[in-house]
Amino acid sequence: xxxxxxxxxxxxxxxxxxxxxxxxxxxxxxxxxxxxxxxxxxxxxxxxxxxxxxxxxxxxxxxxxxxxxxxxxxxxxxxxxxxxxxxxxxxxxxxxxxxxxxxxxxxxxxxxxxxxxxxxxxxxxxxxxxxxxxxxxxxxxxxxxxxxxxxxx
Length: 153
Prior knowledge:
Layout: H1 2-14, H2 17-44, H3 60-81, H4 86-108, H5 112-134
Helix pairs in contact: 1-2, 2-3, 2-5, 3-4, 4-5
């Protein structure tokens, strides 16, 4: 709990209050997405040659990824509106675009091995989002720096 308060205080110093609240939302959404994506990636590794299976229509991860993409886009806009760092704005914009691209990869995957890799990328994306939203200086070395393109991971 103390870490959350420290994180919030740090964000408040580097971003205006609305952006800090948006960053906290990204953190809150990213953690369970990463955990679920890691769990699915591991489960799919047990039968890698089996054909891939599409998402179930009511799969909660789809909703969570949509909410995450919206939260990342909202954070990007808040950073821009508050005159925040261009690289952070672009990172979160890239993440907002990357989440739906990863869903499409899972849907198009021919095998469970391909799906496992796509889930691992979702987990990586969510972990990076969580880390960078909590500590904007953690963005150094991230691949989500272009406002014009989506990372291929």
